[in-house]
Design goal:
The complex is a heterodimer of chains A (105) and B (217). With 105 residues, chain A is mostly helical. Chain A folds into 2 domains: 47 residues; 30 residues, no CATH class. Helices cover 60% and strands 3% of the residues of chain A. Chain A has 3 helices and 1 strand; from the N terminus they run E-H-H-H. The longest helix of chain A has 45 residues. Chain A starts with 7 loop residues before the first strand and ends in an 11-residue tail after the last helix. Chain B has one domain: Transmembrane di-heme cytochromes, Chain C (Fumarate Reductase Cytochrome B subunit, Up-down Bundle), CATH 1.20.950.20. In chain B, 73% of the residues lie in helices and 4% in strands. Chain B has 10 helices and 3 strands; from the N terminus they run E-H-H-H-H-H-H-H-H-E-H-H-E. Chain B has a two-stranded antiparallel sheet. The chains are: A mainly alpha (105), B mainly alpha (217). At the A-B interface, strand 1 and helix 1 of A face strand 1, helix 2, helix 3, helix 6 and strand 3 of B. Strand 1 of chain A pairs parallel with strand 1 of chain B, so a sheet runs across the interface.
Amino acid sequence: MKDERYQYEESPSYVSRREFITISGIVIAILALPAVWIRSAVVKRNNYIRARINGLYRDDTGSKVRVSHGNSGVAKLYKDFAGHPLSEVSEELFHTQSYINRTRI
Amino acid sequence: MSKNQSWILKHPWSVRSFHYLLVLSFIPLAITGVVLFFKPFDQLTMNLYMRIHVVTGVILTLDAVAYFIIGFTRVIAFVKRSFSFSANDIKWFSILGGYPQKFLLRKKVAVPPMGKYNSGQKLFGICVLIGGTILIATGWGLWGFPHILPHSMAALFGTLHLVFGWLLILFLLVHIFLGIYMFDDFKAMFLHGKIPCEEAKEMAPLWVEREVVKIER
């Protein structure tokens, strides 16, 4: 039942059926095209990352030193300078001083 | 208000409820967005602003998606009206709708006849349609899926979010000012949805002539 407090309203036939279909198609296409572009860019980036991971693993397989604690340079740094991991010197130089928890955003 | 006054339903309940939620979400989004841009506070406070920005962004998205689905025919009518141009629009922009003359010179100039939306409102409508969609899409990308986006795309999303955010904030200031200035339309949007026929004939003669029909009871 219509509200008695007004006597006029917009004509429901302002948009014809043909216009409705045309405009709907354009709107949906404009919304869909960027989605397709974003998806293809993400897939391309993921293929690049996958190729890079495979390359790194391949390089790693052929390396003599494959773990950080086996790195003689790092071992020498701790022995001659920083003492041991989590020592005062390494805490001060290698660790961040302040931390804000942003994981709840 | 005369009892014999005739009224036109301009903003039905679906439009008004969409607009309420839009106001409740976009104004906090604009304020927190400006704060996030200038970063005047410490990190913890900025983190709080970011959380408000995200929550209100989700509300805006739900509002827009719900209206797009439920009020799809109205969305299509809005697109048609916003993208319908004629020589009257050029005339309207050449005198800026007569507003500067009215506000600065206290002079009333002849304004070409307009439809439901005048040329300035059409421009605003186009910016809201395109800018709003870009803001929602880029906002979700930057917040929800930054780890999935390629670096260049995330940077582009950030730039687009910034540019369209500022554009819509500046347009919003004009929209609020003129919205309150057109007080009958303001009451229609926030209260009862209807405007007097006489007012509509003066402000939107083409709308009354071409789109408004009498209700048969």
